[in-house]
Give the backbone structure.
Amino acid sequence: MAAIRYGDRLYELRESESVLDALLRAGVPARHSCKAGSCGSCMMRAVDGAVPAKAQTGLKDSWKARGYFLACVCHPDSDLEVAAAEDDAEVPATITSLDRLADDVLRVRLRCGAPFEFRAGQYVTLVRDCQLARSYSIASLPEEGEIELHVRRIPNGRMSGWLSTEAGAGTPVSLLGPSGECFYVPGREDQPMILVGTGTGLAPLYGIVRDALRNGHRGPIQLFHGAVRRDGLYLHDHLTRLAAAHANLEYTASVLEAPDAGDAVSGPIDQLILRRFPNLDGWRGFLCGDPALVGSLRKKLFLAGIASRDIYADAFLPSAT
Ligand SMILES: Cc1cc2nc3c(=O)[nH]c(=O)nc-3n(C[C@H](O)[C@H](O)[C@H](O)COP(=O)(O)OP(=O)(O)OC[C@H]3O[C@@H](n4cnc5c(N)ncnc54)[C@H](O)[C@@H]3O)c2cc1C
Ligand code: FES
């Protein structure tokens, strides 16, 4: 079995154990969230030894060259000496405002203290300190000057709770990333697009829709936002106005709990979409939010005709213990 040197200690890896799990088992407070190679919060640096290619999937080339890797999906074949990611892997940022979009949804705006290139719809890993980092999708456009995130408050959530009760304008944080392929690529301006998000899964879609419109997308854009209850449709009025101002944009709100649906459609959002669009041949699809719904809709959109290369999805994986 391979061993990990971290600081002045050696940690033996058990069968099929990741570097992250070995460190956590030994009581090292290694930062992590998804444990699935998605959020980037567990990034470490290899000082000596060979890092398996899989542990560097999705990282920037410059980071790969410096030995950065994701500890949660790193299963080395031979001994590895590792160190914490250096501060220069993170971009310093300051929270400029925090306001409530709904009872349990916060809008967080951040200004970066160094150049930070991103596309609307990608996600960043928000780093509170060396112990806590979580991923959030970007709702803003680069030219807006600030990064906007929509954060759902999770009961007992460490990051969302801290943002709701302790953080405020002026609080310093840092950012890792951006990551993800879920963004608008200009070039096929007449292609119809369907975007489906539940809860704060709307955040990246809000950015992508505005990016597509700004880029002169001419094809139909169908935006679906699903919530459990009517008050979860936290940008309803704004999106209704945006759709009224753009002939090719249609916004559909859907709620699961029928009694308070109001002007939204009630019922499961996947059934609603497939009833209205049984044939999606030639479309481009974007899916964000609840991992189970993203997974099942990805299959359904594919079966309805969208090529898998035209389906972009970000599942909001919760933190794993
Ligand atoms: C690629 C990516 C993009 C994301 N984008 C967003 C975004 O734009 N907006 C957003 O609000 N979130 C987003 N998330 C989720 C986010 O990263 C955090 O997982 C979430 O904010 C909870 O963090 P926390 O520290 O507040 O709660 P934690 O302290 O991590 O969780 C507390 C407890 O609640 C459980 N839990 C966590 N999340 C959920 C959930 N959704 N449902 C039920 N139980 C849960 C945990 O397993 C844990 O037991 C994204 C995740 C990923 C991987
Ligand atoms: S990428 Fe490793 S914990 Fe998320």
